[in-house]
Amino acid sequence: MRKFTKVENSWMMYDWANSAYSVIITTAVFPIFYKSVASSAGVSNADSTAYLGYAVAIATFILAMIGPILGSIADYEGLKKKFFFFFFAVGSLSTLSLAFVPEGNWIWLLIIYTITAVGFHGANIFYDAFLVDVTPANRMDNISARGFGLGYIGSAIPFIISIAIILLADSGVLPLSMTIATKLAFVITAIWWITFTIPMLKNVIQIHSVPRESSIIVGSFKRLGSTFKDIRKYRHVFLFLIAYFFYIDGVGTIISMSTAYGTDLGISATTLLIVLLVTQIVAAPFAVIYGRLSDKFTGKKMLYVGIGVYIIVCIYAFFMKTELDFWILAMLVATSQGGIQSLSRSYFAKLVPKEKSNEFFGFYNIFGKFASVMGPLLLGATTQITGSSSYGVFSLVLLFIVGGVILKFVPEQDAEVV
């Protein structure tokens, strides 16, 4: 494989930049901090877990509603980066504002967290769509997978710094309260995200687009209508999206709810942070391995490998009782979470017409986000009904099975739509 270009490296660097949010805000520090604040306010473990799931559902529902139309508008010449910048700014600045929420106010934590999620995932619509602008189809799997690999490595650095500050504050070495130490992690996340997004903003440009019209909004709705009218032409694209709808739901729910689940099992905050750090380190090479294996076995076969691993994860989680079990579960997730996400992104990018990439990645977003509404709601409702998080995680098995069955009908070859 030839050397990576400056544009490819700049695009991949955004995974390095925004993955700090994925770990510190979505998966690790924020959920633990929120659970602690909610518990101090008298909210039960089951209810606080459910409320976090509902917050995730609200954020993703908002994006699901606006994704396709924003994507369609951004397909016009010169607009993709402007939309990317807007959502990146919303996400990073609201993440910074988490540090200024009054102490003990768990409701405002959830509200601002919802805004950060809208910004983070909104920016990713346009970031993912830029894949068609930065590299040819035969390099997409490796570029996408390497981006995820860089993300895991990049996220580990601010995560280590944040953990060090929190643990040193907890032990009394640093003269900081645990609340202040945790809020510093939010500041670090925002600064890291902003700093390493600069190469993306500076070097990546929109190549594939549609000509501007006199009325951009009216034209966008017309193009959306045309896409639905010609849906048979894009049958394989939408079939893939339906499969993706189900299996990525389970992936996203496990990622966003893992620390809350671990807390409910009685695992300490310190142990959770260490497990998540090791997970990031292990996940980096596996994301790259998935990309390379896709060249040999096809992206579709490697997606099935990832789905199979996640089914095992859900079943194992149901019987999990000890800290060792949680470690085993985390390592299983580490082997496949980056691979299944990166190959989904690149497989889809090769299926869609390049000049309509934002519109189709808007659909990619809406299917993924609607799925992310269903998964947390399913987990939250099952947890509240049964009083056990184990049943909530186990219920996600159904999503992976349905997604895998539908994926069977998507073409084996990575063909582009023309």
UniProtKB/TrEMBL annotation:
Gene3D superfamilies: MFS general substrate transporter like domains
Cellular localization per UniProt: Cell membrane
Coiled coil: none
GO MF entry, a single one: transmembrane transporter activity
Name the UniProt record assigns to this protein: MFS transporter
Keyword flag Zinc: no
Pfam families per the UniProt record, alphabetical: ATG22
Keywords: Membrane, Transmembrane, Transmembrane helix, Transport
Membrane topology term: Multi-pass membrane protein
Cross-referenced InterPro entries: Atg22-like, ATG22/LtaA_families, MFS_dom, MFS_trans_sf
Transmembrane segments: 12-34, 54-71, 83-101, 107-127, 148-168, 180-201, 237-261, 267-290, 302-320, 360-379, 391-410
GO terms under cellular component: plasma membrane
SUPFAM superfamilies noted in UniProt: MFS general substrate transporter
Protein origin, superkingdom: Bacteria
Domain Major facilitator superfamily (MFS) profile stretches: 1-416
